Amino acid sequence: MVKPIPKVGSRRNGRSSARKSARRIPKGVIHVQASFNNTIITVTDVRGRVISWSSAGTCGFKGTRRGTPFAAQTAAENAIRAVVDRGMQRAKVMIKGPGIGRDAALRAIRRSGILLSFVRDVTPMPHNGCRPPKKRRV
Amino acid sequence: MPHLLLHYHVPITTVHLRCSFPSPKPTAHIHLRSNPTTGATVKCMANPRRVKMVSKQIRRELSDMLLTDKVLQYAILPEAALGADRYLSSLTTISDVEVSADLQVVKVYVSVFGDERGKEIALAGLKSKAKYVRSELGKRMKLRLTPEIRFIEDESLERGSRVIAILDKIKAEKKTLADEDYEEEAESSVSAQDDRDWESDDPDEDIIYVK
After folding, report:
1. Which spans does this entry mark as compositional bias, Acidic residues (chain B) (predicted)?
2. Which of A34, B39, B122, B165 has the lowest tally of Cβ within 10 angstroms?
3. Which of B57, B157, B165 sits opposite A138 (nearest CB)?
Protein backbone atom coordinates (compact mmCIF):
# COMPACT_ATOMS: atom_id res chain seq x y z
CA MET A 1 0.00 0.00 0.00
CA VAL A 2 1.06 3.59 -0.29
CA LYS A 3 0.83 4.76 3.30
CA PRO A 4 1.59 2.52 6.25
CA ILE A 5 -1.61 2.43 8.26
CA PRO A 6 -0.96 1.66 11.92
CA LYS A 7 -2.69 -1.55 12.95
CA VAL A 8 -5.22 -1.22 15.72
CA GLY A 9 -5.50 -4.29 17.88
CA SER A 10 -9.10 -5.27 17.46
CA ARG A 11 -9.31 -7.35 20.60
CA ARG A 12 -7.67 -4.80 22.84
CA ASN A 13 -10.13 -2.06 21.99
CA GLY A 14 -13.08 -4.39 22.13
CA ARG A 15 -14.13 -3.13 18.70
CA SER A 16 -14.63 -5.57 15.87
CA SER A 17 -13.11 -4.45 12.61
CA ALA A 18 -16.05 -5.94 10.74
CA ARG A 19 -18.17 -2.93 11.66
CA LYS A 20 -18.43 -1.12 8.35
CA SER A 21 -21.05 1.58 8.43
CA ALA A 22 -21.98 4.18 11.04
CA ARG A 23 -18.58 5.85 10.74
CA ARG A 24 -19.16 9.55 10.53
CA ILE A 25 -16.62 11.22 8.29
CA PRO A 26 -16.77 14.99 8.36
CA LYS A 27 -13.75 15.52 6.10
CA GLY A 28 -12.77 13.62 3.01
CA VAL A 29 -10.94 13.65 -0.27
CA ILE A 30 -12.61 13.37 -3.64
CA HIS A 31 -10.43 12.01 -6.42
CA VAL A 32 -11.53 12.79 -9.94
CA GLN A 33 -9.79 10.92 -12.71
CA ALA A 34 -10.86 12.51 -15.97
CA SER A 35 -9.68 10.83 -19.12
CA PHE A 36 -10.92 11.68 -22.58
CA ASN A 37 -13.36 8.78 -22.68
CA ASN A 38 -14.50 8.41 -19.10
CA THR A 39 -14.55 10.01 -15.66
CA ILE A 40 -14.04 8.09 -12.43
CA ILE A 41 -14.88 9.69 -9.10
CA THR A 42 -13.63 8.11 -5.89
CA VAL A 43 -14.42 9.44 -2.45
CA THR A 44 -11.97 8.54 0.27
CA ASP A 45 -11.22 9.70 3.77
CA VAL A 46 -8.21 11.85 4.53
CA ARG A 47 -5.95 8.83 4.87
CA GLY A 48 -6.91 7.44 1.50
CA ARG A 49 -9.27 4.61 2.38
CA VAL A 50 -12.01 4.43 -0.21
CA ILE A 51 -15.54 5.09 0.95
CA SER A 52 -17.43 5.07 -2.29
CA TRP A 53 -16.81 5.47 -5.97
CA SER A 54 -18.71 6.01 -9.15
CA SER A 55 -17.91 6.48 -12.78
CA ALA A 56 -19.65 7.55 -15.94
CA GLY A 57 -19.73 3.94 -17.08
CA THR A 58 -21.43 2.68 -13.94
CA CYS A 59 -24.04 5.40 -14.23
CA GLY A 60 -25.46 3.75 -17.30
CA PHE A 61 -23.64 5.62 -20.02
CA LYS A 62 -21.93 3.54 -22.65
CA GLY A 63 -19.41 4.23 -25.35
CA THR A 64 -18.79 7.80 -26.44
CA ARG A 65 -21.39 9.20 -24.06
CA ARG A 66 -19.17 8.39 -21.08
CA GLY A 67 -16.79 11.15 -22.05
CA THR A 68 -19.38 13.91 -21.99
CA PRO A 69 -19.58 16.49 -19.22
CA PHE A 70 -23.12 15.46 -18.35
CA ALA A 71 -21.95 11.93 -17.62
CA ALA A 72 -19.19 13.27 -15.38
CA GLN A 73 -21.73 15.34 -13.54
CA THR A 74 -24.06 12.38 -12.94
CA ALA A 75 -21.16 10.29 -11.73
CA ALA A 76 -20.17 13.01 -9.28
CA GLU A 77 -23.69 13.32 -7.97
CA ASN A 78 -23.94 9.56 -7.53
CA ALA A 79 -20.67 9.34 -5.67
CA ILE A 80 -21.49 12.21 -3.37
CA ARG A 81 -25.00 11.08 -2.56
CA ALA A 82 -23.59 8.03 -0.86
CA VAL A 83 -21.27 10.13 1.27
CA VAL A 84 -23.46 13.04 2.21
CA ASP A 85 -25.51 10.64 4.33
CA ARG A 86 -22.33 9.81 6.23
CA GLY A 87 -22.09 13.43 7.18
CA MET A 88 -19.30 14.72 4.99
CA GLN A 89 -19.13 18.47 5.01
CA ARG A 90 -15.73 19.44 3.70
CA ALA A 91 -13.66 17.82 1.01
CA LYS A 92 -10.45 18.28 -0.87
CA VAL A 93 -10.55 17.59 -4.56
CA MET A 94 -7.68 15.92 -6.40
CA ILE A 95 -7.94 16.11 -10.14
CA LYS A 96 -6.07 13.83 -12.46
CA GLY A 97 -6.08 13.80 -16.23
CA PRO A 98 -6.99 16.06 -19.12
CA GLY A 99 -10.63 15.30 -19.86
CA ILE A 100 -13.70 17.49 -19.78
CA GLY A 101 -14.89 15.67 -16.65
CA ARG A 102 -12.61 17.84 -14.54
CA ASP A 103 -14.71 20.91 -14.91
CA ALA A 104 -18.10 19.23 -14.94
CA ALA A 105 -17.43 17.12 -11.86
CA LEU A 106 -16.09 20.13 -9.95
CA ARG A 107 -19.22 22.08 -10.73
CA ALA A 108 -21.40 19.19 -9.64
CA ILE A 109 -19.47 18.87 -6.38
CA ARG A 110 -19.83 22.55 -5.69
CA ARG A 111 -23.57 22.37 -6.38
CA SER A 112 -24.09 19.45 -4.04
CA GLY A 113 -23.46 21.47 -0.93
CA ILE A 114 -20.13 19.99 0.13
CA LEU A 115 -17.62 22.64 1.08
CA LEU A 116 -14.59 22.52 -1.18
CA SER A 117 -11.51 23.22 0.84
CA PHE A 118 -8.80 22.74 -1.78
CA VAL A 119 -8.55 21.86 -5.44
CA ARG A 120 -5.32 20.18 -6.42
CA ASP A 121 -4.09 18.85 -9.72
CA VAL A 122 -2.28 15.54 -9.24
CA THR A 123 -1.79 14.50 -12.85
CA PRO A 124 1.21 12.16 -12.81
CA MET A 125 4.19 13.97 -14.24
CA PRO A 126 7.34 11.97 -14.87
CA HIS A 127 10.66 13.67 -14.30
CA ASN A 128 11.52 12.19 -17.73
CA GLY A 129 11.13 8.53 -16.85
CA CYS A 130 9.38 5.96 -19.02
CA ARG A 131 9.28 6.34 -22.76
CA PRO A 132 5.79 7.51 -23.82
CA PRO A 133 3.86 5.63 -26.53
CA LYS A 134 4.63 6.51 -30.14
CA LYS A 135 3.12 9.57 -31.83
CA ARG A 136 -0.26 9.11 -33.45
CA ARG A 137 -0.19 9.87 -37.13
CA VAL A 138 -3.21 11.76 -38.33
CA MET B 1 -15.78 10.91 -51.08
CA PRO B 2 -13.06 13.52 -51.16
CA HIS B 3 -14.49 16.71 -52.46
CA LEU B 4 -12.03 19.20 -53.90
CA LEU B 5 -12.68 22.51 -55.63
CA LEU B 6 -10.00 24.47 -57.35
CA HIS B 7 -10.46 27.73 -59.22
CA TYR B 8 -7.52 28.50 -61.44
CA HIS B 9 -6.75 30.23 -64.71
CA VAL B 10 -5.89 27.06 -66.63
CA PRO B 11 -7.92 25.08 -69.18
CA ILE B 12 -9.53 21.88 -67.97
CA THR B 13 -7.07 19.17 -66.95
CA THR B 14 -7.15 16.46 -64.34
CA VAL B 15 -4.37 16.25 -61.82
CA HIS B 16 -3.53 13.50 -59.35
CA LEU B 17 -2.92 14.87 -55.91
CA ARG B 18 -1.09 12.62 -53.51
CA CYS B 19 -1.35 13.65 -49.92
CA SER B 20 1.89 13.62 -47.92
CA PHE B 21 0.37 11.81 -44.90
CA PRO B 22 -1.35 8.43 -44.82
CA SER B 23 -5.12 8.65 -45.12
CA PRO B 24 -7.77 6.16 -46.22
CA LYS B 25 -8.12 7.69 -49.72
CA PRO B 26 -4.61 8.77 -50.74
CA THR B 27 -5.39 10.04 -54.24
CA ALA B 28 -7.89 12.69 -55.22
CA HIS B 29 -8.83 14.27 -58.50
CA ILE B 30 -8.81 18.00 -58.96
CA HIS B 31 -10.68 19.54 -61.86
CA LEU B 32 -9.09 22.83 -62.82
CA ARG B 33 -11.62 25.18 -64.26
CA SER B 34 -11.01 28.45 -65.98
CA ASN B 35 -12.90 31.17 -64.18
CA PRO B 36 -12.01 34.70 -65.26
CA THR B 37 -14.40 36.44 -62.84
CA THR B 38 -12.96 35.28 -59.49
CA GLY B 39 -9.37 35.85 -58.46
CA ALA B 40 -6.78 33.14 -58.10
CA THR B 41 -8.19 31.74 -54.86
CA VAL B 42 -7.12 28.27 -53.92
CA LYS B 43 -9.56 26.43 -51.65
CA CYS B 44 -8.90 22.91 -50.54
CA MET B 45 -11.59 21.03 -48.62
CA ALA B 46 -10.51 17.96 -46.69
CA ASN B 47 -12.39 14.79 -45.99
CA PRO B 48 -14.82 15.40 -43.09
CA ARG B 49 -13.61 12.25 -41.39
CA ARG B 50 -10.10 13.59 -41.51
CA VAL B 51 -11.26 16.90 -40.10
CA LYS B 52 -12.69 15.05 -37.12
CA MET B 53 -9.49 13.09 -36.60
CA VAL B 54 -7.40 16.23 -36.76
CA SER B 55 -9.64 18.01 -34.30
CA LYS B 56 -9.38 15.11 -31.85
CA GLN B 57 -5.63 15.05 -32.17
CA ILE B 58 -5.38 18.80 -31.67
CA ARG B 59 -7.53 18.46 -28.58
CA ARG B 60 -5.19 15.86 -27.15
CA GLU B 61 -2.12 17.88 -27.91
CA LEU B 62 -3.52 21.10 -26.49
CA SER B 63 -4.73 19.43 -23.31
CA ASP B 64 -1.34 17.85 -22.88
CA MET B 65 0.29 21.23 -23.42
CA LEU B 66 -1.92 22.80 -20.79
CA LEU B 67 -0.90 20.16 -18.30
CA THR B 68 2.81 19.93 -18.99
CA ASP B 69 4.04 23.08 -20.67
CA LYS B 70 5.48 25.53 -18.20
CA VAL B 71 5.02 28.62 -20.37
CA LEU B 72 1.31 28.00 -20.81
CA GLN B 73 0.80 27.20 -17.18
CA TYR B 74 2.38 30.44 -16.12
CA ALA B 75 0.16 32.23 -18.62
CA ILE B 76 -3.11 30.87 -17.28
CA LEU B 77 -2.15 30.74 -13.62
CA PRO B 78 0.37 33.45 -12.74
CA GLU B 79 0.90 32.22 -9.22
CA ALA B 80 2.36 29.00 -10.57
CA ALA B 81 5.44 31.04 -11.45
CA LEU B 82 5.81 31.86 -7.77
CA GLY B 83 5.57 28.20 -6.91
CA ALA B 84 2.04 28.20 -5.53
CA ASP B 85 0.73 25.60 -7.90
CA ARG B 86 -0.36 23.00 -5.39
CA TYR B 87 -3.63 24.58 -4.46
CA LEU B 88 -5.30 25.95 -7.55
CA SER B 89 -7.40 29.05 -7.64
CA SER B 90 -8.75 28.34 -11.09
CA LEU B 91 -8.91 25.30 -13.32
CA THR B 92 -8.73 25.59 -17.11
CA THR B 93 -10.07 22.86 -19.33
CA ILE B 94 -10.37 22.57 -23.08
CA SER B 95 -13.95 21.56 -23.66
CA ASP B 96 -14.11 21.49 -27.42
CA VAL B 97 -12.03 21.99 -30.54
CA GLU B 98 -13.62 22.94 -33.84
CA VAL B 99 -11.57 22.77 -36.99
CA SER B 100 -12.71 24.48 -40.16
CA ALA B 101 -13.25 22.30 -43.21
CA ASP B 102 -10.01 23.41 -44.85
CA LEU B 103 -7.97 22.79 -41.67
CA GLN B 104 -6.81 26.39 -41.52
CA VAL B 105 -8.68 27.80 -38.54
CA VAL B 106 -9.07 26.10 -35.20
CA LYS B 107 -11.51 27.38 -32.60
CA VAL B 108 -10.64 26.15 -29.13
CA TYR B 109 -13.40 26.42 -26.55
CA VAL B 110 -11.93 26.88 -23.10
CA SER B 111 -13.86 26.51 -19.88
CA VAL B 112 -12.46 28.02 -16.71
CA PHE B 113 -13.62 27.03 -13.25
CA GLY B 114 -13.05 29.74 -10.70
CA ASP B 115 -13.99 33.28 -9.89
CA GLU B 116 -14.43 36.12 -12.36
CA ARG B 117 -10.91 37.44 -12.04
CA GLY B 118 -9.37 34.01 -12.52
CA LYS B 119 -11.41 33.57 -15.67
CA GLU B 120 -10.24 36.83 -17.16
CA ILE B 121 -6.64 36.15 -16.33
CA ALA B 122 -6.74 32.66 -17.76
CA LEU B 123 -8.38 33.68 -21.01
CA ALA B 124 -6.16 36.74 -21.46
CA GLY B 125 -3.11 34.61 -20.81
CA LEU B 126 -4.16 32.03 -23.38
CA LYS B 127 -4.94 34.65 -26.01
CA SER B 128 -1.56 36.27 -25.51
CA LYS B 129 0.14 32.92 -26.04
CA ALA B 130 -1.80 32.01 -29.20
CA LYS B 131 1.23 32.32 -31.48
CA TYR B 132 3.38 30.31 -29.14
CA VAL B 133 0.72 27.60 -29.01
CA ARG B 134 0.57 27.58 -32.80
CA SER B 135 4.30 27.04 -33.10
CA GLU B 136 4.29 24.33 -30.45
CA LEU B 137 1.45 22.56 -32.21
CA GLY B 138 3.39 22.69 -35.45
CA LYS B 139 6.35 21.02 -33.75
CA ARG B 140 4.20 18.30 -32.25
CA MET B 141 1.90 17.51 -35.15
CA LYS B 142 2.86 16.84 -38.72
CA LEU B 143 0.47 18.98 -40.71
CA ARG B 144 1.10 20.66 -44.02
CA LEU B 145 -0.15 23.99 -42.75
CA THR B 146 -0.41 24.61 -39.04
CA PRO B 147 -3.80 26.19 -38.45
CA GLU B 148 -4.47 29.53 -36.81
CA ILE B 149 -5.67 29.06 -33.25
CA ARG B 150 -8.41 31.11 -31.66
CA PHE B 151 -9.34 30.72 -28.01
CA ILE B 152 -12.99 31.25 -27.16
CA GLU B 153 -14.54 31.15 -23.73
CA ASP B 154 -17.01 28.34 -23.29
CA GLU B 155 -19.86 29.34 -21.04
CA SER B 156 -22.10 26.38 -21.75
CA LEU B 157 -20.93 24.33 -18.78
CA GLU B 158 -21.44 27.19 -16.41
CA ARG B 159 -24.85 28.01 -17.79
CA GLY B 160 -25.90 24.39 -17.56
CA SER B 161 -24.69 24.24 -13.98
CA ARG B 162 -26.69 27.35 -13.12
CA VAL B 163 -29.83 25.95 -14.68
CA ILE B 164 -29.47 22.69 -12.80
CA ALA B 165 -28.89 24.53 -9.54
CA ILE B 166 -32.09 26.50 -10.06
CA LEU B 167 -34.00 23.33 -10.90
CA ASP B 168 -32.68 21.64 -7.77
CA LYS B 169 -33.73 24.59 -5.69
CA ILE B 170 -37.23 24.50 -7.12
CA LYS B 171 -37.44 20.77 -6.52
CA ALA B 172 -36.32 21.20 -2.91
CA GLU B 173 -38.85 23.96 -2.34
CA LYS B 174 -41.62 21.87 -3.82
CA LYS B 175 -40.62 18.96 -1.67
CA THR B 176 -40.72 21.00 1.54
CA LEU B 177 -44.10 22.42 0.54
CA ALA B 178 -45.42 18.97 -0.21
CA ASP B 179 -44.13 17.67 3.12
CA GLU B 180 -45.78 20.50 4.99
CA ASP B 181 -49.06 19.93 3.18
CA TYR B 182 -48.92 16.24 3.89
CA GLU B 183 -48.26 16.82 7.56
CA GLU B 184 -51.14 19.27 7.79
CA GLU B 185 -53.48 16.80 6.14
CA ALA B 186 -52.42 14.01 8.45
CA GLU B 187 -52.98 16.17 11.52
CA SER B 188 -56.44 17.33 10.43
CA SER B 189 -57.58 13.81 9.58
CA VAL B 190 -56.44 12.47 12.95
CA SER B 191 -58.25 15.25 14.85
CA ALA B 192 -61.45 14.61 12.84
CA GLN B 193 -61.28 10.95 13.76
CA ASP B 194 -60.85 11.81 17.40
CA ASP B 195 -63.96 13.95 17.32
CA ARG B 196 -66.01 11.17 15.81
CA ASP B 197 -64.76 8.22 17.87
CA TRP B 198 -64.11 9.86 21.18
CA GLU B 199 -66.18 7.30 23.03
CA SER B 200 -64.76 4.12 21.45
CA ASP B 201 -61.38 2.99 22.59
CA ASP B 202 -59.45 2.72 19.40
CA PRO B 203 -55.95 1.38 20.12
CA ASP B 204 -54.68 2.65 16.78
CA GLU B 205 -55.88 6.15 17.41
CA ASP B 206 -52.59 7.76 18.22
CA ILE B 207 -50.57 6.14 15.45
CA ILE B 208 -49.95 8.45 12.54
CA TYR B 209 -48.74 6.64 9.47
CA VAL B 210 -46.23 8.80 7.67
CA LYS B 211 -44.46 7.64 4.56
Report:
1. 196-211
2. B39
3. B57
Pairing type for strands B105-113 and B91-99 reads: antiparallel
Please give the pLDDT value at position B167. 92
Most confident listed range (A18-22, B15-19, B152-156): B152-156
Which domain does B127 fall in, by range? Answer: 48-158
ipTM (interface predicted TM): 0.79
Does residue B58 fall inside a structural domain?
A: yes
pLDDT tens-digit readout, B103-119 = 999 999 999 988 889 89
CATH tag, A27-121: 3.30.420.80
Q: What is the pLDDT of residues B162-207, one digit of tens each?
A: 999 999 999 999 999 888 887 777 666 665 555 555 555 555 555 6
Give the residue from B72, B161, B167 with the most A CB atoms within 10 Å of its CB, the best one to mutate.
B161
Q: Give the start-to-end residue ranges of the domains of chain A.
A: 27-121
The per-residue pLDDT for B45 is 80
Q: Is residue B62 part of a domain?
A: yes
Count the neighbouring beta carbons within 10 Å of the beta carbon of residue B8: 16
pLDDT tens profile B53-91: 999 999 999 999 988 888 888 888 888 777 776 778 888
- Compute the nearest-CA separation of B151 from chain A (Å): 16
Q: Which residue from A103, A108, A83 is spatially nearest to A29, judged by alpha carbons?
A: A83
With CA atoms as reference, the chain A residue closest to B65 would be: A98
